[in-house]
Fold this sequence. Notes:
Blueprint: E1 6-10, E2 16-21, E3 25-31, E4 34-39, E5 43-49, E6 52-60, E7 67-76, H1 84-95, E8 104-109, H2 118-132, E9 136-141, H3 147-153, E10 161-166, H4 168-179, H5 184-187, E11 192-196, H6 202-208, H7 216-225, E12 227-238, E13 241-245, E14 248-252, H8 253-259, H9 270-282, E15 288-296, H10 299-311, E16 342-344, E17 349-355, E18 359-361, E19 364-365, E20 377-383, H11 387-392, E21 408-420, E22 427-429, E23 432-434, E24 439-452
Helix pairs in contact: 2-7, 3-4, 8-9
Amino acid sequence: MATSNELRVVNGSGKVSTFKLTDSSLLISRDPKKTVDVPLKQVLWAEHAQDTLHVHFLARKSKKGSLSLVKASGRIFPADKSAVDAWIDALTAKAYEGVKQRRRLKVLVNPHGGQGKSVAIFRKKVEPILKAAHCTLDVTYTTHSKHAQALAKDLSLDFDAVVTVSGDGLIHEVINGFAEHAQPLKALNIPIAPIPTGSGNGLSCNLLGVKDAFDVCAAALNAIKGRPMKTDLFSFTQGNTRRLSFFSQAVGLMADLDLGTEHLRWMGDTRFVVGFLRGIAKLSPCAATLSVKVAESDKDKMLESYRKVRDAAPPPPEAESESEGALPPLQHTSPGKGDDGWVTFDKPLLYVYAGQGPYVGRDLMQFPLSLPDDGLIDVVAQELTSRGDMLKALDGAEKGGPFWLPTQHYFKAHAYRLTPRSKKGCLSIDGEAYPFEEYTVEVHPKLGTLLSMYGRYVDDFKMQKPQ
Length: 467
């Protein structure tokens, strides 16, 4: 006999299966020795039709494997039919606790992103998961550069989220489209959920963690059940041009290895390692002057503050802002006069890398102390040093090891400005190429919105300070 927590069905083999609901899991038992434990967050939907129960969920075939879509079905016991609806309601309520069901999603697919497999991945893996969760999908396949930006500029504000099937470049377009929207602050309240199919998928590393960084099924689950998480955005100004950046800005070695390996997209994110090794072989100085409006530069103090925030429980999702009006005004278009916190870096540079989100790729945790909404940007100034020192930096790079290099200077900043002293060089903004000219970046606290299953970035910075 069914209860509010347990339901019996006859599976396709004619054997009895039991579906048992607990506070944290759905337990599916085919016999006493075979029980599948499905975390409730991975349950997508349950329904019954013509006396048959169907439960859709995501599961791993192995402990280290990726998630995949599973449908468990069975014929309902006649004696249990009267309790089925109540059981399904109980399961769905727990599986979607605090999260809206049947989200309405705007999906943008870039057919040319990364290795050119975005369309196939979306249709084969992602779309079936979103449909299993009964999401309403409005899908557009982008056809040209800045197509996503144009779509975001005129996007209806009633979508629950924008899902980008590509790399970080498409997110850059969407955010800048939101900035041009007739109601930019409301548009920027629409959460973005990336599906990692590009060659640069740094945001997915930070939202999903390194283990699931390229798991498109885990990313689809985030689009279905992630909660809105406010994040700082950055104004990038160059001459009379203002753009928003959500992820990173790079000059010197780090920009060269990104933009200089576009022809190696077929390698996936391995191309960045190849680019790094090429850059170390050349070891070209970065001819630029860096000025920073510093909030903190003491690594020990920054680490202590970071740990206090990370040790605390993630804050609950903020209520959706009803803000009207334009983007925040610029405050730091030029370094102020006198002692107001602006510092000029006075050592020869190999690269400058600034941004937010600990990981810039699976192999490099460049900003280990980054927080989504601390109102600051993390700025790394790497001194020109020996090839041997830079090769040593590869050891533990995926865990934030370079943070402790004496030649790697780390700032928490309100703003910074970079002035090239040469006409030759690369500038990468969120992985996109920009003119190698003077620019300023400043922080806008909590201007952007992402979806997150965790309410924070997923990282693991445990590298101890060398003795």
